Amino acid sequence: MILSQIKVLDHQEITPSYHRMVLESPAIARGAQPGQFLHIRISDRHEPFLRRPFSIHRVRREKEGQGEIEILYEVVGRGTEFLSKRQQGEYLDILGPLGNGFRIGSEGRRIEKGALLIGGGIGVAPLVFLCEELITNHQLPVTVLLGAKSQDNLLCEEDFRKLGALIKIATEDGSCGHHGLVTDLLPTVSPPSSPIYTCGPYPMLKAIARATQEYHLSCQVSLEAHMACGVGACLGCGLKTRQGYKYVCKDGPVFDACEVIWDD
Amino acid sequence: MILSQIKVLDHQEITPSYHRMVLESPAIARGAQPGQFLHIRISDRHEPFLRRPFSIHRVRREKEGQGEIEILYEVVGRGTEFLSKRQQGEYLDILGPLGNGFRIGSEGRRIEKGALLIGGGIGVAPLVFLCEELITNHQLPVTVLLGAKSQDNLLCEEDFRKLGALIKIATEDGSCGHHGLVTDLLPTVSPPSSPIYTCGPYPMLKAIARATQEYHLSCQVSLEAHMACGVGACLGCGLKTRQGYKYVCKDGPVFDACEVIWDD
Amino acid sequence: MIKPNLEANIGGLRMKNPVMVASGTFGYGEEYGDLVDLNRLGAVVVKGITLEPKEGCPPPRIVETSCGMLNAVGLENVGVKAFIKERLPHLRGFDVPIIVNINGKDAKEYGVLAKILDGVEGISGLEVNISCPNVKAGGIYFGQDQAATYEVVTRVREVTNLPLIVKLTPNVTDITLIAKEAARAGADGLSLINTILGMAIDIHTRRPKLANITGGLSGPAIKPIALRMVWQVAQVVDLPIVGQGGIMTAEDAIEFILAGAKAIAVGTATFVNPKASIEIIEGIEEYLLREGIEDINALRM
Amino acid sequence: MIKPNLEANIGGLRMKNPVMVASGTFGYGEEYGDLVDLNRLGAVVVKGITLEPKEGCPPPRIVETSCGMLNAVGLENVGVKAFIKERLPHLRGFDVPIIVNINGKDAKEYGVLAKILDGVEGISGLEVNISCPNVKAGGIYFGQDQAATYEVVTRVREVTNLPLIVKLTPNVTDITLIAKEAARAGADGLSLINTILGMAIDIHTRRPKLANITGGLSGPAIKPIALRMVWQVAQVVDLPIVGQGGIMTAEDAIEFILAGAKAIAVGTATFVNPKASIEIIEGIEEYLLREGIEDINALRM
Ligand SMILES: Cc1cc2nc3c(=O)[nH]c(=O)nc-3n(C[C@H](O)[C@H](O)[C@H](O)COP(=O)(O)OP(=O)(O)OC[C@H]3O[C@@H](n4cnc5c(N)ncnc54)[C@H](O)[C@@H]3O)c2cc1C
Ligand SMILES: Cc1cc2nc3c(=O)[nH]c(=O)nc-3n(C[C@H](O)[C@H](O)[C@H](O)COP(=O)(O)OP(=O)(O)OC[C@H]3O[C@@H](n4cnc5c(N)ncnc54)[C@H](O)[C@@H]3O)c2cc1C
Ligand SMILES: Cc1cc2nc3c(=O)[nH]c(=O)nc-3n(C[C@H](O)[C@H](O)[C@H](O)COP(=O)(O)O)c2cc1C
Ligand SMILES: Cc1cc2nc3c(=O)[nH]c(=O)nc-3n(C[C@H](O)[C@H](O)[C@H](O)COP(=O)(O)O)c2cc1C
Ligand code: FES
Ligand code: FES
């Protein structure tokens, strides 16, 4: 956990609502795990007041002493809007890496058959980092199911392709791939027993959790909660689990789907 | 009184604390009087919360339908600091022109002998506009007494010189002109009976008011007060006068020195 | 789709929309004349009036705070007679209900004021301010005490049939108790909240920033508190509520309506954005259209 | 010039500087371990403790507001036994006074809690929280009532000689009355203010944003209110005050000290800037140096 002023190396608008920001931080790049997040101070004044959490989208740590991290974000409110105005060369006050990321080969078991990544909308953000880790460091075959409202909201297809993942797409309006929800694609995946890693809107995660529970599949979900501290101090991001309240920021944001008590 | 989004045409840092901003507004340029001010919204979020008042420093209205106004300001707190970061091409939400400016030839009497302008620190801002008006439109000889902490804080000497004013300078550290307060220069001015127009720190204005009252000189002071509305609606900028409370934003900011009840 | 109905009714006072401008933030309706078309507003609540002209507090009277401001104007006003003679005529020229905010030194004076105003042409309602934090005699005391609230409202009720809105102070342990007393004494509506007592100190001069030492906090900083109080009162008192406190946007206004307010008042926002009230009216209408709600009175949590 | 003296003493609890971290905003002192050197702090007030473990409120528990936040955590904690066994040992490793924030269901339970904690190694003082707005039984009720305040503090006072700081709620008509009762019952110090009850509504779902409906407002939005209450209490009660509510910077802290606080607590600021407390200590020292004040206890309005 590092708190520092970090330089914006690059900031690209992918579409008016999606932005990609590259940040210079050898220290965070060195320690970051897929699924972990950054807690970013949006303004040095009191509004927007709280920090905003963003998953680590990609990490580059080519040379010793160098390192870059990327976030991919959607403009949904005042904080992200303000963030989208920050320019190359400016500095951001960042706390991270925070939380527990995806466990690869959880409980000591090695994954042999490969992994299934399911991303909905902006939820793909942490999955690119994870995919790279799985393919490059673990030499595992990865299938990615990508879901979006429409082709315009489809993110990172190229990134996953370059990494060598097999990609299946679903859009709600049918403008690309399967016409329907990404969860419809679940039965089409083989082998059906690969461990699942997923991030996306709550209803999607819940549907996946339900499906995987039925088939006793290992499934890790990356969840969101409104956060104040990001480090477990405020107890603001409480999540109902079978072991009582856990904290999205400290115990998560990645949880086993089966330990989460899903809301209606 | 106009409320509009106004484009920043130019924004120059004179020294790290003093900035000059040129704004595009034919409508304000057309109606503005020396001594009036603009009420500028600093942020479109809630912090800094209130608008900030700035005197109209200069006006250009060369051609029909065109017009520029300038402010000259000092960075003293969060609002002016934030303002100093606005860039050319951005838009500012501005209410103005507001207030009652300097009265030239007050009470119907024409000024014959000329005018004496006394500016302390950033208080010179409205005097440049006034000086231009006096010299260009009223063909009056103008003497300007300029005071500052030191040579580095001396503002607008060149502007006054170009307009053709006679200038005398005092600095508190003696780095330029008379070593002492600008009020020390008062007895050196001739004719001693010119009407006085002044803006600057409160103690300076008070000293001048006292001196001019003794000699029964006409003296107009431009005063400051913390403001909310800027238009006379909140009664926040109350000023004690011999006629009861008046409002700096609506009745002023320019007042006859003799009507003000000066604080200790 | 047809235009949604925005009409509101506060205890007999009918408005074309639920958006008022709050007392003390819109002068006597002349100051923003060039910028705000009064005819578009739901109602105008004028600056607080007293029986005699009042000088108010010495300056400095206002201080900016985080997302808000403190004011200690101290009810400066021209007095009821000058108000009727000099300020009201201008307001009569508009097609908008005028609500007069009244302030007495004691219960009797509230009654005297109400009687003077009763029947005066161009006045549509009274807002009985029992909550000004910046005057020593009277003012805050009434609105912090159940019995005093009952007495003041009773006195006013006795002498007028004008719609009577009682303006409550948030500086209390349980605002519902005061609200209930106002209702029992015959109020037609409740206005809440007035400002919250606050303070600021200059660390360089080591003196309070306001000459009056303390002042009333307003603006977005207090919105969550105001909203909570409106919600609390709406649960237990069956009077229409004029919600206020930190409303800057249509979204804020809608929050208050969802919390149970029948109308809202825009206060400090006008200083920051003179057109706030107009933009809020437009924004509420757009929201209702978007959500497919035909009548604002059907908007509920 | 020599370094100014920053030492503070809150009813026998001696601190190297007047800057505490506030209850509920610093966990059990471990969470910010990497970033904040506990040894530099004046004191650490741990998250509120109850007799039995407490589950707290369902999520969502926090909402951002203008210059502040609402929380409805609901005093979730591991219970006093687990606290002593599992959390305290880590804290004992530091050279900083640990203050335990205690919360009972009734006056008796406050007494039981205090007795359990009395004499436990590593505990330097108790903060008796009679002001949590997010628990139904107990909690806010005590701090809104003079008699209940007196009773709770008396019960705690009977069983412990630890420095006793009573934490007051701002949700009252007159905080000085409650402060006086706490003093009369034997408090060694007062802590104010706790959060102010507030609310936020989602206009799209038309539901409250917090599962608990209402929550406690903290952050810079409430600073003017907190400052006013500290000043009011300091005028009439002769106990050292721990000022808090919206302190973000050293300047804010100094305002509280000028208003009459002997120490201050940094709460919500830590979420925004984990190093806020350390920067505030440094900023106070710089201010004293700049102003030529040799002892912080000499700093007065
Ligand atoms: C662990 C984690 C990782 C995330 N990673 C990403 C990412 O990689 N890319 C991305 O675009 N978004 C991500 N999000 C969501 C992102 O944090 C929110 O979209 C963002 O905080 C919205 O801020 P705002 O001011 O624009 O919206 P507003 O709605 O104005 O924000 C108001 C408040 O609500 C909170 N809030 C609003 N939406 C969310 C949300 N979905 N989750 C948590 N808090 C929220 C804000 O933090 C703020 O406190 C992540 C959230 C979490 C918890
Ligand atoms: C009619 C008028 C004309 C002015 N003209 C100029 C000008 O041409 N150039 C210039 O540099 N300054 C001018 N000022 C002063 C300028 O308004 C303040 O310096 C500015 O508001 C400070 O804002 P801040 O946020 O940087 O300071 P902060 O101290 O952080 O401001 C906090 C609050 O105090 C108010 N405030 C602080 N200082 C003053 C002040 N001196 N007068 C009024 N309010 C103040 C701010 O408006 C704000 O509400 C003028 C003031 C008035 C009333
Ligand atoms: C400068 C100022 C003056 C005010 N004067 C009055 C007044 O005379 N009578 C009154 O009932 N309320 C008065 N108020 C309170 C407002 O009407 C309103 O209730 C309060 O400010 C909360 O709303 P806001 O946050 O939207 O401003 C005043 C508020 C301000 C800021
Ligand atoms: C998330 C959160 C949890 C809190 N928990 C407690 C608590 O358990 N006990 C307590 O006495 N105060 C608690 N408080 C109140 C703070 O200690 C502090 O008094 C209050 O937040 C005002 O200060 P601030 O504005 O600096 O945060 C909590 C505040 C927050 C924001
Ligand atoms: S955000 Fe504070 S505990 Fe998770
Ligand atoms: S600033 Fe509102 S009356 Fe002058």
Q: Which class do the helix and strand fractions of chain C yield? A: alpha/beta
Strand order of the largest sheet of chain A: 4-3-7-1-2-6-5
Mean pLDDT of chain A: 92
Which value, in Å, is the CA radius of gyration of chain C? 18 Å
CATH superfamily of chain C: Aldolase class I
Helix content of chain A: 10-25%
- Uncertain residue segments of chain C: none
Fraction in beta strands of chain C: 15-25%
Largest sheet of chain C: 8 strands, parallel, barrel
Q: Please indicate the count of domains of chain C.
A: 1
How would you describe what is shown here?
The complex is a heterotetramer, with 2 copies of chain A (264 residues) and 2 copies of chain C (301 residues). With 264 residues, chain A is an alpha/beta fold. Chain A has helices spanning 26-31, 78-83, 125-137, 157-163, 202-214; strands spanning 2-13, 18-24, 37-41, 52-55, 58-60, 68-74, 91-98, 115-120, 142-148, 166-171, 178-179, 196-199, 219-222, 238-241, 244-247, 254-256. Chain A has a 7-stranded antiparallel β-sheet. Chain A has a 7-stranded mixed β-sheet with strand order 11-10-9-8-12-13-16, sandwiched between helices. In chain A, strand 8, helix 3 (125-137) and strand 9 (142-148) form a beta-alpha-beta unit. Chain A is globular and about 50 Å long. Chain C is an alpha/beta fold and 301 residues long. Chain C has 9 helices and 16 strands. In chain C, strands 3-4-7-8-9-10-15-16 form an 8-stranded parallel barrel, surrounded by 6 helices. A 4-stranded antiparallel β-sheet of chain C has the order 5-6-14-11, with no helix packed on it. In chain C, helix 6 runs parallel beside helix 7 (250-259) and helix 7 crosses helix 9 (276-291). The mean pLDDT of chain C is 94. Chains in contact: A-B, A-D, B-C, C-D. At the C-D interface, strand 11, strand 13, helix 6 and helix 7 of C face strand 11, strand 13, helix 6 and helix 7 of D. Bound molecules: flavin-adenine dinucleotide (FAD) (2 copies), flavin mononucleotide (FMN) (2 copies) and FE2/S2 (inorganic) cluster (FES) (2 copies). One flavin-adenine dinucleotide binds next to strand 4, strand 6 and helix 2 of chain A.
